[in-house]
Amino acid sequence: MGKKRKAGDGASVEDSGKKVEEMAVERPKRTLLGWKDKTEVVEEKDDESGQVFRNKEKVLVSCSRRITFRYRHLMTDIVSLLPHCKKESKIESNEIKAQSINELVELRNCSSCLFFECRKLKDLYLWLAKSPNGPSVKFLVNTVHTMEEMKLTGNHLKGSRPILSFSSNFDNDPRWKLMKEIITQIFGIPKDHRKVKPFFDHIYTFSIADEHIWFRNYQVVTQGGIEKTTLVEVGPRFCLNPIRIFAGSFGGPTLYENPLYVSPNQIRALEKEKKTGKYLNKIKAKAKRKVHELANPIEGDEFADMWRED
Amino acid sequence: MNMSKNDSGSESEGEELPLLEPSKKAIYNREGLLECLEEIRWPEDVKWIHKLTIDHVQDQDIDVNDDITREMAFYTQALEGVRQAYAKVEKMGGIPFFRPADYYAEMVKSDSHMLRIKSRILQDKKQIVEADERKKSREAKKISKQVQSQKLKERAKSKKDDIESVKKWRKQRQQSGYAPGKDEELLNSMLESGTATATGKKRPGVAPGDRTGGISKRGAKFGKGIPNSGRPGGGKNREYKDSKFGNGGRKGGRKQNTAETTNDIKGFNRGFKVNKRRKI
């Protein structure tokens, strides 16, 4: 259990630690669960200045209305993976505006937001946003597999902290660097969160392949020792295609725009266009044939009358 | 047709271009991105235990379209990550890494879901085993057919050889000047009928009252088929019916029930179908 401290208590904690050492014979403190016999651990400090780093990240998870079941299941999976998140009810599509969502995030005391936006019952867009000052990233989500699926046989503790494994090409480019930072802050679970369980039994991998971020979640299975460790996939699986990075949260000036991105609408339109014009093509072909036949008349057959008996 | 295709092609090519080539107008504000990163990033000297991030050096690009190599790459990345994280946690000391076997707590997937997964896996395994067995039995059947036909051929051949040898022997006897005696006649009749029925001696494998010469016991092998061709008449059905109802001859108590057959209820219907899907 994390010990609660008052703000600006850094120095006094150390003092109390010394006191406990001095008066070790004193009777242990009584708690609800029995006697507390251990001396309280003084919280470690991260640097010389005496400031303690505390991760107070809270993530708001929400989605748009008219989301399909598969994407909704993906969202619930992510909710079950993040003990430090708060789930918000669906947001009407006409209310999907930067201001209203930011207000929501602020109302729920959250510092970042995962927003699942489903369009046309087909395409899923995922917003990763830091609130209130940004930045935010918009992704297109591909190849979604949820935890429901039977092929993913692993399982792990609800609320244990994941190890986040990034492929090295995240450090190549400022945009990937920024995304890596946002992902670590949102998907990393705060160390002293009250719902956290104390072991490391799963790992997330984020790797960049083909300009997409691929997400996998594996359970760590061990038969004694690190050498005999194997991994079993737990799910969910998805693949994020970055579209844009904004400086603000859910809006603001664009910092990056994916030049390779083609919206799924455009792809569908192209496919449709390929199928059109069947009838027109046929008519054109007929006319062309006629012109060709007129231009190149067939010569009369010289042997046509050969066997005629007259 | 060709012309029209070209027409539509030139129209659509203009639209397909963004698929192949990155657009040059795209914004990429590197300074802005780095500034943003500086703003939101955690302090540099944050202890690793807060972040739990591991960097994995990827040697080569992953081929996205090859499922197996891609997943393998992710797997190795994860495994490597676990090893590194374990080393780091060990170095810190005092923090347990693996979950002890007797630590029970709420899991991400519910027990009922895990049970479903388990049953699915078992079912899959069972299906594979069953398919294998079916395949094996099919092959065994093929082989047994071959063996059977070979046996029949061999039998016919040996019979032919026997008859030939006897004929040879008789010719030799005639040539050496023996008059045909009683035995000779017997042999002749035997050769003509092909069996030993004329002797009136005890025939092996035939019931005493059986006038068919043991055909009923042998099933329909030579019953209705073409005689001496080695081809059985009818199929399995005929064979079974012949063995059940017989074709001639006394049944010798074969159709009477015994204690075993009265207790055997294999052939009875249960009378109603049990709905396996019904929830109990």
From TrEMBL, chain A:
For the keyword Nucleus, the answer is yes
Region called Disordered, residue ranges: 1-23
Q: Provide the GO MF annotations for this entry.
A: RNA binding; rRNA binding
Where does this protein chiefly localize? Answer: nucleus
- The source's superkingdom equals Eukaryota
GO CC terms in record: nucleolus
Q: Which residues form the Brix domain?
A: 57-251
Alphabetical keyword list: Nucleus, Ribosome biogenesis
GO biological process terms on file: ribosomal large subunit assembly; rRNA processing
Subcellular location(s): the record lists: Nucleus, Nucleolus
Q: Which InterPro entries does the protein's record reference? A: Brix, BRX1
Read off the PANTHER family from this record: RIBOSOME BIOGENESIS PROTEIN BRIX, RIBOSOME BIOGENESIS PROTEIN BRX1 HOMOLOG
Recorded family membership: Belongs to the BRX1 family.
Designated name of the protein: Brix domain-containing protein
The upper taxonomy is: Eukaryota, Viridiplantae, Streptophyta, Embryophyta, Tracheophyta
Automatic annotation (TrEMBL), chain B:
User: Keyword annotations for this protein?
Assistant: Coiled coil, Nucleus, Ribosome biogenesis
Protein's cellular compartments: Nucleus, Nucleolus
**Main localisation, per the record?**
nucleus
The alphabetized list of GO BP terms reads: ribosomal large subunit biogenesis; rRNA processing
Coiled coil as UniProt keyword: yes
The source's superkingdom equals Eukaryota
Keyword Nucleus attributed: yes
| Bias kind Basic and acidic residues: ranges | 132-142, 151-167
Region (Disordered) spans which residues?
A: 132-280
Would you tell me the Gene Ontology cellular component terms?
A: nuclear periphery; nucleolus; preribosome, large subunit precursor
PANTHER family from the UniProt entry: RRNA PROCESSING PROTEIN EBNA1-BINDING PROTEIN-RELATED (PTHR13028), RRNA-PROCESSING PROTEIN EBP2-RELATED (PTHR13028:SF0)
Q: Which family does it belong to?
A: Belongs to the EBP2 family.
Task: Return the protein name.
Answer: Putative rRNA-processing protein EBP2
What lineage does the source organism belong to?
Answer: Eukaryota, Viridiplantae, Streptophyta, Embryophyta, Tracheophyta
